[in-house]
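Recap from last week: sequence in, structure out.
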Amino acid sequence: MKIGLNQGTTLENSSLEKDLELCEKYGYDYIEIRSIDQLKDYLKTHSLEDLAAYFQTHHIKPLSLNALVFFNNRTEEEYAALRDEFKEMLEIAKVIDCKNIVVVPLVSEQKILRKDIIKSSVETLRDLSDLAEPYGVKLAIEFIGHPHATINTLEFANQVVKEVDRHNVGIVFDTFQYYAMNSTLESLENTDPAKIFIFHINDVEDYQPGILMDVDRVYPGHGAIDLDSILAILKDKGVDHVSVELFRPEYYQFDAEEVIKTAKETTMQVISKHFEVEKAL
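Predicted structure tokens:
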């Protein structure tokens, strides 16, 4: 089982350059790069070629670019701008040899009929799929476990992916998003393993589903999610990587090295019951 770090974990107390150094130090296999902020900051003093060279000469590799935000149910003008943004992300992915781009559904208080969400999502994802195909890049839909998200359960995300019916369109399975809107183990068991492109692990404080926010995330094994049952299913499905993603303000107050080290240790403690992993550094 390979382990990655999503940069949301160190969003306010680190940088891409520092995260790369620390992930290499603590034996991470992957990093998920926040293209919307931390990559932009990196490029103020470095080039994409510098980043590509780092990956070529170090153990750590890019797992995904995060993220194309609010891809569905947009106006024509909004979608045109989003499409241009996606094209730029594809060029970045090409240079650094990144094979996944995370795409996030619209979050809005506007009430949208389910059929209209599906129609827009399918049309949009097929268009983006066509753009991504020559680059060998996959689109990983991260359903958002919040009542205002247009795709907010694993079951609905699977339905959209099935209707899109493209080999390069799948999902991000995130344990927080799964728990936050009461997705079920049955839905996970029914998920096509070939469509789980990225697996995010985290835990959450014991609040009621439906009111949870990203800030409620905690280190794996420190919260209320039944991670053991989830991991048992994912092992049977042949999932071979995990990426820890936390957005906890409390952790941003700590030194980034402490957070990255603790995230690795707690993740390994949880997954080692089900997967073979190397000992923590």
